[in-house]
TrEMBL record:
Organism: Methylophilus glucosoxydans
Major localization class: membrane
Lineage: Bacteria, Pseudomonadati, Pseudomonadota, Betaproteobacteria, Nitrosomonadales
Family statement: Belongs to the TonB-dependent receptor family.
Protein name per the record: TonB-dependent receptor family protein
Membrane topology: Multi-pass membrane protein
Matches recorded under CDD domains: ligand_gated_channel (cd01347)
UniProt-annotated location(s): Cell outer membrane
Short name of any one Pfam family annotated for the protein: TonB_dep_Rec_b-barrel
Keywords: Cell outer membrane, Membrane, Receptor, TonB box, Transmembrane, Transmembrane beta strand, Transport
Signal peptide: none
Keyword Transport appears in the UniProt entry: yes
Length: 756
């Protein structure tokens, strides 16, 4: 009863802590509670009727099935041991060893992370579905799939990366891949478990994390707390984040489990979202001219409730409800990089300060700027039925599910030439320069069945996305909007089939192949532009992105001490979306194609030679030999055969390590990214203005050395570790999306972890 009460407290915390919770969420939570207790009685009746039925222990799993040999596509699992072995500083380093994944590191700690898979544009990870325990974690999964938050690695038990046809069961982004962060389970063994970890590093980096949990056969409770801070890549780009999480589990019976999780996250950083112009970058690539005044604030509250009901040995019903609210606000003083002969012009600065509105940067405190506060709120409910059956005499696993998802987005912008505009509270006392309301309603239906026929599995699947997006531009460029074009309702219904197969004719070896139709819904924030002298706002109707994704691959651990996977992939887009010729706009660029091959593997010589001293080699390599547009589109500055932006031909990661039986392991590695090209909107002519702004030109290749040392004495609960990234302190260009942005300098950190 104690843990039942504690878990109930977690549910109450998740609802009451959120600002202005939705009534519908409370209804969903209440329905869950009534449903769970009603089903408890049903389960007990069934238990009395069939006491001989032995049921597996109910557990929350990731997005991959229990039988990994039946997965009809490529995937990667980064477990807790691998995370400790590599000691990644951020999600960027955690994923660098995954084939096909390109992470553009324009930020120190991975805040606003940019992940691209198989040649897709990585900007804010908008084409890769990010989830935590199966719940989407974007600002708004349909309306604004931007990754300004990722689950802190301290809370992660494993990371699942799925790139094949298994995406049919999830959405809405299915054109690239999925990344699911699986958090640690609540302990239920009657013991108290937890750990405390402290980390220090250069660039004023420090981190303190603690978790504690306890439980028994009735359930348990776990609490996590995290605080991190440090300096960013550029000067004055300091950041500070805090996160608090509570997770509770209540085992109502052998057949029923309730799991509730609530979290609160806050980021307060001085990050200039605008990069540098060419002259500025050549002077000092790590400068941020107005970094002292620029601000990025993000506050995020989430709640997740799951109910697992093992109906019998063959049927399991799992239902989850989720709610997330994000409030993000950014302030910037620089409008465009490289203006005024390479000196960044301050946004909305009074004429006369520094001369004719182009002030000396030392007087930035006397200038105004622009705030962009935005609120995102979404919730959803998703029941899913997993059934083991023998229809037509064939052993099968079926998955049937439905998800209802709702989003409300409020986008505002304030501008002023008064220094008081550096404070959001003052800016909000004025009329907004921009005021946009967006509502999204999405219904998703999916069904998939895996047939087991000897050494073969066949997995057909089908997903239906039914989406309604309503956009209302109330104010634009300071003017109220009442023209018909400022409102738009965009309805989309797409049927997404998939088919995968595997063959396990050789021991510990799987040959797999698959094809599925990918889909990325139209984004309302991309359909906004002004015309007629910027006095009239128009909402356009960008087509959704659709793709056909093919895979053929092999994974094996047949040879002792050796594991490897190789995948050949082919992806064709019909209406890929690219940046438009006018800054801040987006249009459909037409057809594109990506072809490549991926390799990943590891050799453990300790296993091969039966010794406790293990030398190992681990690595990955991706050759994206085709990543091109297939048709000329003059409106988008696209020429047939042009390479896709931020699609390096070669990605490679190689590590050499040694594990000693006394508890010492050490690793040194290198990560390589070949040349990349900028957004197509800036390529036409590569004119002098865009060159000065720093937005046009190649992103040269680079290779970064990294190393890790861990020591945990045998029988000890203490672990000592040290890690370094960009050990050679190489200077390199990471991005040109909004001006030139340098990659991170050498980052070294060390720490202590105590487990109990």
């Amino acid at each position: 009863m104690l843990f039942a009460a504690l878990t109930h407290s977690v549910v109450i915390f998740g609802v009451t802590h959120m600002q202005k919770p939705r009534k519908k969420l409370i209804v969903v939570a209440t329905a869950f509670s009534l449903h769970a207790y009603a089903l408890q009685g049903l389960a007990e009746d069934q238990s009395q009727a069939s006491k001989s039925v032995a049921l597996d222990k109910l557990e929350v799993r990731g997005i991959l099935p229990d039988r990994l040999d039946s997965v009809p596509g490529s995937y990667d699992l980064i477990d807790e041991k691998a995370l400790m072995e590599r000691r990644p500083f951020s999600i960027q380093e955690a994923l660098n060893n995954v084939p096909g994944v390109n992470v553009v590191g324009e930020n120190t700690f991975g805040l606003g992370v940019n992940i691209g898979i198989r040649g897709l544009n990585p900007r804010r990870t908008s084409r890769t579905l990010l989830m935590e325990d199966g719940m989407p974690i974007f600002l708004a999964p349909y309306g604004d799939p931007a990754a300004h938050y990722t689950t802190p690695l301290e809370r992660v038990q494993r990371i699942e990366v799925v790139k094949g046809s298994g995406q049919i069961l999830y959405g809405p982004q299915t054109v690239g891949g999925m990344i699911n962060f699986v958090t640690r389970p609540v302990p239920t063994d009657g013991q108290v478990h937890g750990n405390v970890q402290a980390t220090l590093g250069n660039h004023d980096f420090s981190s303190l994390y603690g978790t504690i949990g306890a439980g028994d056969e009735r359930g348990g409770l776990m609490i996590d707390a995290l605080h991190k801070k440090g300096d960013g890549i550029r000067k004055h780009h300091d950041f500070e984040i805090q996160e608090y999480t509570a997770k509770g589990q209540l085992n109502l019976s052998d057949r029923h489990t309730l799991i509730a999780k609530a979290s609160y996250f806050r980021e307060d950083s001085h990050v200039s979202e605008t990069g540098l112009g060419l002259v500025e970058y050549n002077e000092d690539k790590y400068q941020a001219p107005t970094g002292k005044n620029d601000v990025f604030q993000h506050e995020r509250t989430t709640f997740q409730l799951q109910h697992l009901f093992q109906v019998n040995e063959q049927v399991k019903l799992s239902t989850q409800a989720y709610y997330a609210k994000s409030e993000r606000a950014s302030f910037r003083q620089i409008n465009n990089p490289g203006e005024n002969a390479g000196r960044s012009q301050l946004e909305r600065c009074p004429a006369g300060i520094g001369g004719n509105g182009n002030p000396n940067l030392a007087l930035a405190d006397q200038c105004g700027g622009r705030w962009r506060p935005r609120e995102f709120e979404y919730w959803g409910i998703e029941p899913r039925l997993d059934i083991q059956h023998s229809l037509f005499g064939i052993e099968s696993n079926a998955v049937l599910g439905f998800r209802y998802h709702k989003e409300d987005i409020d986008r505002k912008q304030y501008r002023g030439d008064d220094a008081r505009f550096q404070h959001l509270g003052f800016a909000q006392t004025t009329l907004p320069r921009e005021d946009i309301k967006i509502e999204v309603e999405a219904k998703s239906y999916y069904a998939q069945n895996t047939f087991y026929v000897g050494d073969w599995t066949f997995t057909p699947g089908l997903r239906l996305e039914d989406i309604r997006i309503k956009t209302d531009v109330m104010r634009a460029d300071g003017n109220p909007q009442n023209n018909p074009e400022s409102k738009l309702t965009n309805n989309q219904t797409k049927l997404l089939p998939g088919l995968g197969l595997t063959w396990n004719g050789f021991e510990k070896t799987t040959l797999f192949a698959g094809v599925h139709k990918g889909f990325a819904p139209p984004r309302p924030d991309r359909d906004l532009f002004a015309e007629n002298g910027a006095n009239t706002a128009v909402v356009s109707k960008t087509k959704p992105e659709e793709s056909i994704n093919w895979e053929l691959g092999l994974r094996s651990s047949f040879f002792k001490g050796v594991t490897f996977e190789s995948t050949l992939f082919h992806t064709v887009f019909d209406d890929i979306v690219v940046a438009g010729p006018v800054q801040g706009t987006f249009i459909n660029g037409g057809q594109s194609e990506q072809n490549g091959i991926e390799f990943g593997g590891r050799i453990n010589f300790g296993q091969i030679y039966n010794t406790s001293h293990n030398f190992y080699i681990a690595g990955s390599y991706t050759n994206l030999f085709t990543a091109k547009f297939k048709k000329t589109n003059a409106a988008a500055n696209i020429v047939d055969g042009d390479r896709l932006p931020y699609a390096p031909r070669h990605l490679a990661s190689l590590s050499f390590g040694y594990e000693h039986p006394v508890g010492l392991d050490a690793r040194i590695g290198v990560d390589y990214v070949s040349r990349q090209e900028e957004d197509v909107s800036f390529r036409a002519g590569r004119n002098s203005a865009n060159v000065l702004r720093g937005v046009t030109g190649d992103i040269p290749s680079y290779a970064l050395i990294n190393a890790t040392v861990n020591y945990r004495p045998v029988g000890s609960r203490m672990t000592y570790f040290a890690s370094a990234y960009n050990l050679g302190d190489r200077e390199y260009l990471a991005s040109r999306v909004d001006g030139m942005v340098a990659g991170r300098q050498r980052q070294v950190f060390g720490g202590i972890r105590y487990d109990f």
